[in-house]
C-alpha cells in the first residue's frame, strides 16, 4: 500500500468520526434504522439465493441466525419418523440406513422393563415433583451411582459450572467398606445399615435434591436393584479383608436355552466368585475388596459397566453390553457364531419402537450424558 493512501485513509476515518459525533439523536436513530433494514434485506436475499445450497449451511449451527427460516432449506428437512423396521419395529426417518436399528434382524435384545413407582411417575414429566426430578436428574443419579466418573484430563476455566474432558473417560469403584476414619462413598453408602444416615449422606453432597424423593428412590434400589442385593449377600459371605468378590465380565448362560442367552438380567450370586487376594483373574472382571483404599478401573466391556454408573436408567442392575452376545439368524431366530458389536448393541437399545416404552429416552439430561459416555468409549475403542 502506498504511503499517500495511508494518509488519505486516516483523513477519511477522522472525518467519519467527526460526522458521527456531531449528529443529533434523531439523526442517529434514523441511521440505525436504515442500517437494520439494509442488514435484514441482505439476509433475506442471501436466504433466497442459497435455499438449496448445502455449502451455505456449513457450520451454521455455530452461528445460528434467528432471522433465517431454516425450514426453507430442503437439504435440512428430514421429514417425519414414519419409517418402520420390518424386523424390530423401530421408528426411523426416511433416509436412515435400513440396518441401523437391528442389523436387518440380526440383533434382538430383550426390552428393558419399565420402572415401578415412584420412578415411573418421576420420569413422566407430569407434576411438580417430576419436573423437579427431570431438571436435576443428574444430581439424583449422582446420589446413587456406585462408580465414580473420571477422565484423563478435566479442564475447568473461568469459574464456569461446566468443564471440558480431554482424552479417555473411565469409571472406578472402591471397596465395599471404607477404611477406618473415612466416610462412605458411592457403593459403600449402600452398606451403612442405617437408612436415615444413608439419606443424610446422599443429600449432603447434592444440595439440589429433595430428601423425600431420595428416600423413595433409596427404598426402590434396595428392593429391586439386583447388583445391590448381590453385593449385600456376597459381603456377608466374605470371611475377611483378605478375600475379594469377583464378577465375571461376560454372561455365562446355564444350559442351551437360547432365550436365556439373550436375557439381560443382573449377575446372580451363583455367578460371583469369592477368592483370596493374589489369585490371578481376567483383566475385564470386576474385583471388589471387602475393605481397602484402592480404586479399580471398571472396563467398559464389562456387562455391569452401565448399571453401576447409571442406576436411575438401569434400576434393576441389568446387564449391558458384553462380548458374549451373539447375533441371530433373522429367518430362523437361531443364534449364529457372529457376535454383536457395541455399536449394534447401543443402536438397538436407543431406538424408539412401536408399542414399546423405552425408559432410557425419558431420562433427558441423564440420557444425554449416557449417550456422550457411549460415544467417547466408541472413539476410544476405535483409536
UniProtKB/TrEMBL annotation:
Which intervals carry biased composition (Basic and acidic residues)?
Answer: 25-35
Where in the sequence does UniProt note compositional bias of the Basic residues kind?
A: 1-11
Superkingdom as given in the UniProt entry: Eukaryota
Ranges annotated as biased composition (Polar residues): 12-24
Residue ranges of the region described as Disordered: 1-35
Name of the protein this chain belongs to: Helitron helicase-like domain-containing protein
This protein's species is Pieris macdunnoughi
Q: What is the lineage of its organism?
A: Eukaryota, Metazoa, Ecdysozoa, Arthropoda, Hexapoda
